[in-house]
Amino acid sequence: MAESIDLSSQGKPGTSSEPGEGPRGVKSWSTPVSSIDDDHNDPNGNPKKTYLTGWRLHITTLAVCLGLFLPNFEVSIVSTSLVSITNDLKGFAQSSWVVTSYLITYTGFFIVWAKLSDIFGRKITIMGSLLMFAAFSGASAGATSIESL
User: Fold this and answer.
1) CA 49 – CA 30 distance, rounded (Å)
2) Which of 47, 66, 83, 97 is deepest in the core (most CB within 10 A)?
3) Could you tell me the sign of the dihedral formed by the alpha carbons of 120, 124, 125, 129, in that order?
4) From CA 52, how far away is CA 71, in angstroms rounded?
5) Cα 63 from Cα 126, distance rounded (Å)
6) Which conformational region is residue 28 in: left (phi greater than 0), alpha (psi within -120 to 50 degrees), or beta?
């Protein structure tokens, strides 16, 4: 069996539990610059968490719910009226491509928007994705043929 070794008793730099010199001369137990102001920290020195309240919480909740509701609502509308849409556009034989292309595009953009939200932040990404969703939904509503749909 492997036995555990207590490295702090061997006297190597950076392995003791006491403050002092760490590896390569770095002081251990140093205080981060961001925790100097005690008004923004809890008693343990961790930054205080701030939460949205009031109208900002309500607007943010509404935006997130809207972002989750709209794509699902559009899928139910399109699936219900797909026969009428494809009859008007004279392309019933290609109607399965309407749903398939929507789902492939929707799924493919999950990865793109997830990475963009890591880079630019959640707020701007949600607003951008809703704007793109509205623009492409409007373009689909104005389609004159099954190919442009």
Assistant:
1) 22
2) 97
3) negative
4) 26
5) 8
6) beta
